Amino acid sequence: MNTQIYLTENGIKPSVQRIALMDYLLTHKTHPNVDEMYEALHEQIPTISRTTIYNTMKLFVKHGIASLISIEEKNARFDGDVSLHGHFLCQNCNQLYDFHVNEKLLNIEELFSSLDGYNIKDTQIYCKGICKNCK
Amino acid sequence: MNTQIYLTENGIKPSVQRIALMDYLLTHKTHPNVDEMYEALHEQIPTISRTTIYNTMKLFVKHGIASLISIEEKNARFDGDVSLHGHFLCQNCNQLYDFHVNEKLLNIEELFSSLDGYNIKDTQIYCKGICKNCK
DNA sequence: TACAAATTTGTAACCATTGCAAATATATAA
DNA sequence: TTATATATTTGCAATGGTTACAAATTTGTA
After folding, report:
1. Cβ B129–A118 below 8 Å, yes or no?
2. Per-residue flag: A62 CB under 7 A of strand D
3. What is the pTM assigned to this prediction?
4. Would you tell me the crossing angle of helices A50-62 and A16-27 to the nearest 10 degrees?
5. Do residue A127 and residue B113 have CB atoms under 8 angstroms apart?
């Protein structure tokens, strides 16, 4: 799917920087932080600034085409996959894994039965512990 | 239940500051941040410092008797209720609500079926949106 | 081409959190 | 009790991720 069209369809005017950032998110499932995106895009867009990345991520999150992952204390991470899935942070190797959430539990109404009448815009499921490789 | 015994049973040497902080967490379900705890305890313990609160919260979290809630970008919040439940942040009034998670879904194995072999120490479920009062 | 609006950029500030060493409190041994 | 070692607390300085802001650049439009 064309990234430029994807941005436009989601109400975001495409620019060189925005396209490059969304491309990066969609092709790197590493949940990058701002510094990692800066280092990665610096070569192809030498003038890119961290402020632009912060602004763009905020814009993406507002329009629902990126998720803010706040599982790490220090850094915000971002994910271009906005389908409901969980994130597991290994407290030993610091790697961040996606994990699948059983489809039959995706029914938010049932899972969060006490939130009737609340307008839920974003759901995040975080786990911390030790991963298989580090055990 | 006596807070001093509760700390001891969880491997934490009780001190005036630690007891006061755990007492505060257990009697105030407001998910306070460090500043709020500092302001609240300053009167009864005039010498208390923010560093002590940070250190103590880290200790509580490590021993599993408090949860770190990182749903807000700026501030860390803490919860003395470590049973699995969700947190909802209203993006309008900024209030943080607890919400009940259906008991039959508490089976982590089923919910997180793809995390077999991982040692899960902490699970957090966050939602953001607009609360009933603000709609 | 000229002008207006939107976007990007760099720098300075902000501020929550941590590092660190001195001060204080607590536990232990003689 | 007194002396000594250990643990805890404290205040201040430093860190570093994020944001504010205004200038510079790019884009859209007439």
Report:
1. yes
2. no
3. 0.92
4. 70
5. no
Q: Which residues is B86 bridged to in the sheet?
A: B99, B125
More confident residue, A110 or A115: A115
Pick the CATH number of A85-129 from 2.60.290.11, 3.10.25.10, 3.30.1490.190, 3.40.50.620: 3.30.1490.190
State how far the alpha carbon of B112 is from the alpha carbons of A16, A19, A29, A104, in Å. Answer: 38, 33, 19, 12
The closest of B116, B30, A118, A49 to A21, measured between CA atoms, is A49
Q: Does domain A3-79 have CATH number 1.10.10.10?
A: yes
Please state the φ and ψ torsions of residue A23, each to the nearest 5 degrees: -55, -45
Q: How far is the CA of B95 from the C1' of D14 (A)?
A: 33
Could you list the mean pLDDT of each consecutive 10-residue stretch along chain B, which spans 135 residues? Answer: 94 97 97 98 97 98 98 96 93 90 60 76 92 90
CB within 7 A of strand C (chain B, 62-101): 74-76
Interface contact A100-B113, CB threshold 8 A: yes
Write down how long chain A is.
135
